[in-house]
Amino acid sequence: MRKIVIWGAGGHAREINWLCEEMGVQVAGFLDERPEMKGQIVNGVPVLGTLPDIEALKDEVELICAGVGDPALKKRFAYHTMQSGFRIAAPLIHPRIRLSPRNTIGEGSMVCEGAILTDNIKIGQHVIINRSVNVSHDAVIGDYVTIAPGVNLAGNVTIDEGAYIGIGASVREKCHIGCWSIIGGGAFVRDDVPEFAMAAGVPAVVKNGLIFPEPLSFETERNQIRSNLLGNEVI
Questions:
Q1: What's the Cα-to-Cα distance from 169 to each of 80, 148, 201, rounded to whole Å?
Q2: Rounded CA gap, 7 and 9, in Å?
């Protein structure tokens, strides 16, 4: 039986634990950077601490870094997990999901109950495809993307690394969502959205944009996105 450890101990991590129960995958524990969480029991599963606390399990477990919805946190967790020599888990796909053999899904990603994925879809690593999401033909979804419940993506949509698509949003065919952008809940995206931008409304309008002239650390990148993008609904 597969044995995994989930980064995060909040609501989404608990949902992943339930997904693992549905799949018959054993969850050995949660990881949480808050010192007060270590030793707590969440839904019957122990919070083990952080990576140094599970060093002895390195050869026994696979890690899920997408136990949080925040794309920047996912990226940081994945970076430290791989630097520490832990294995990233194979994709978690709800057993009632039907997948075309022409779809590809990267390691550490998940597809939750009720999602529909049609044909020739490419999904990167550490991606969250949440409940009741519809992804149409030839969509390309980059690493660390989070797609909230009830999102509809039409055909030939491209979503770049680290974007967050809010609950119930719709993206029309052939649109391109730039890296680390946020689409507000309920938005209808009919035009391309640039990188490091916030778009919301019906139709969606770009509310804010950021340009980073130099590469940023994961923590700096995350903090700047959070502080500059209005209406951030990342959880």
A1: 31, 8, 9
A2: 7
Give 152's Cβ-side CA count (13 Å radius). 10
Q: What is the pLDDT of residues 79-99, one digit of tens each?
A: 999 999 999 999 999 999 989
User: Are 130 and 147 spatial neighbours (Cβ–Cβ below 8 Å)?
Assistant: yes
Maximal CA-CA distance, the chain: 52
Given a contact cutoff of 8 angstroms between Cβ atoms, the answer to whether 190 and 203 are in contact is yes
**Which strands form 62-64's sheet, in the order they lie side by side?**
41-42, 45-49, 26-31, 3-7, 62-64, 87-88
β-pairing, 164-165 vs 182-183, is parallel
* Pairwise CA distance, residues 121 & 16, whole Å: 22
pTM of the model: 0.87
Residues identified as active-site: 137
What would the two tokens of residue 29 be? 């524990």
Q: Which residue has the tokens 């339930």?
A: 18
Which distant-in-sequence residues (6+ apart) come within 8 Å of 201 by Cβ? 184, 187, 188
- Tell me if residue 37 falls in helix, strand or coil: helix
Tell me the mean pLDDT in the region 114-134. 97
CA dist., res. 28 & res. 1, Å (int):
11
Helix (H, G, I), strand (E, B) or coil at 227: helix
Q: Which of 172, 138, 168 is nearest to 153 (CA)?
A: 172
